[in-house]
Specification:
GO biological process, one term: protein K48-linked deubiquitination
Helix content: 25-40%
Radius of gyration: 28 Å
Oligomer: single chain
Protein name: MINDY deubiquitinase domain-containing protein
Structural class: alpha+beta
Strand content: 5-15%
Pfam families: MINDY_DUB
Number of helices: 11
Shape: globular
GO molecular function: cysteine-type carboxypeptidase activity; cysteine-type deubiquitinase activity; K48-linked deubiquitinase activity
Order of helices and strands: EEHHHEHHEHEHHHHEEEEEEH
Strand order of the largest sheet: 5-6-7-8-9-10
Number of domains: 1
Largest sheet: 6 strands, mixed
GO cellular component, one term: cell periphery
């Protein structure tokens, strides 16, 4: 699998100009990997500026910080200079393979982790990394804009995000969600609850005063009224709450079962246009996120102004619908959202989520993912072993060299008479 790249120039909130190469999303590509790498590259550009160019040793970075279990951490273990190899890969080619991207990210993890004094266990991250190319399950909470639940990959994905100082956010929020829904405020619980109610009450009536039925229709209306997974309450929190997203900050944004890069500037939200269909539209860099319905979602240049030609057309047949809606990787799953096609109408008495089909598909996918993971892990282990052997050889060579130097006689030239051969004295 390969991805096109595109050069984008843009101004940050301080007026500083940046020029970056980004990855583009095709119809069926792994949008989490793409958004993760794009967000990483752009966010570290800003981090270097925010650090006032303070010089820190890489050992100091590890001394002061270790991986925590919170994806809200913005202190990356990685600096912009650490990305040199990854950025060179993306900049050197018009098409970049998925394997080469995963290889560079894995090498980056290993190199940075080995530089510090503290040992960082990367086994969980390295195991899950190749699996993320097939999608990522997220379990949204309707009262919490920061995503912290990634189902069975929660620990590994959380460590990955913390390592690079990134976070994921969403705007699929409900007014007073906790009060209205209780424990069903999380998507997986809401889904289980709706299936249970359909089984328990075969004939549901919206005017029923039964608390469980009332909650069922509250959820049903919420899904039907917000099919794009963005609400007014969610937009309000993303725009106005600095603890969720600060001005001049990047994050991974989940919407329409799709991952993208989001940027906040002067309390306005902008998503990076990474749709492959816009690869030849050099002026199209951002899309404004100003309205739930999309009426104010104008395309913008890197300077956040409207392009001269407003009727922008995409050049790739595979790009359909609004940017951010493409890249289906899965379905509306029985456990949580996977990056794929969402349909609020999927909750019905006739076919509540097609659970058996979903479970079977998931099992088959997990088996395939596990095989990919084992293969890639073996490659990483071999490379790490080779590196260890190489370091040992270098250390031994240095030790041997020191021993030889310590045994060498004085290099000062002597008169042959002062150094008689075979111990004989000339009389």
């Amino acid at each position: 699998m390969q991805f096109h790249t595109k050069t984008v120039g843009w101004l940050d909130s301080t007026g500083s100009y940046h020029l970056n190469q980004i990855l583009l999303q095709n119809r069926n590509g792994p949008c989490f990997i793409i958004s993760f790498i794009n967000t990483l590259i752009l966010s570290l550009e800003l981090k270097e500026d925010q650090d006032w160019h303070t010089v820190k040793s890489k050992n100091q970075r590890h001394k002061k910080q270790s991986i925590q279990s919170s994806v809200t951490a913005q202190n990356s273990l990685v600096t912009e200079s650490d990305l040199r190899s990854l950025k060179e890969l993306i900049s050197s080619k018009n098409l970049v393979s998925l394997d080469s991207l995963l290889y560079e990210v894995s090498n980056l993890l290993l190199e940075v982790a080995n530089e510090g004094e503290e040992r960082i266990d990367l086994s969980d991250i390295l195991n899950v990394l190749p699996l993320l190319s097939t999608g990522l399950n997220v379990n949204l909470k309707f009262d919490q804009p920061i995503v912290t639940d990634f189902e069975e990959e929660t620990k590994a994905v959380t460590q990955l995000m913390d390592f690079f100082g990134l976070k994921m956010i969403h705007g699929f929020l409900m007014d007073d969600g906790k009060e209205k829904l209780g424990s069903e405020v999380a998507f997986d619980k809401a889904q289980e609850f709706m299936v249970k109610i359909l089984d328990k009450y075969p004939e549901l009536k919206e005017d029923d005063t039964n608390p469980e039925v009332v909650k069922y229709f509250t959820l049903k209306r919420f899904f039907e009224d917000n099919r794009t997974q963005l609400t007014k309450q969610g937009l309000k929190q993303l725009e106005g709450t600095s603890s969720v997203l600060r001005n001049n900050e990047f994050a991974i944004f989940f919407r329409n079962d799709h991952f993208n890069t989001i940027y906040k500037k002067e309390n306005k939200l902008y998503t990076l246009v990474s749709d492959e269909g816009y690869k030849d539209e050099s002026e199209v860099v951002w899309q404004m996120l100003g309205d739930v319905k999309g009426d104010e979602d104008d395309f913008l240049t890197g300077n956040f102004t409207k392009p001269e030609v407003q009727e922008t057309k995409r050049t790739n047949e595979g790009a359909e619908g609004a940017p951010g809606a493409e890249g289906a990787e899965g379905a509306f799953s029985a456990g949580a959202f996977s990056a794929g096609a969402f349909s609020a109408g999927a909750v019905s008495a006739e076919d509540p989520f097609s659970v058996e089909d979903e479970i079977l598909a998931k099992q088959l996918q997990q088996e395939e993912d596990a095989q990919i993971s084992r293969t890639l892990q073996n490659e990483f282990d071999k490379e790490a072993d080779d590196r260890g052997k190489k370091k040992k050889r270098k250390r031994k060579q240095k030790q041997d060299s020191r021993k030889q130097n310590s045994r060498k006689p004085d290099s000062k030239e002597q008169d042959p008479k002062d150094n008689p051969k075979d111990g004989c004295t000339i009389c």
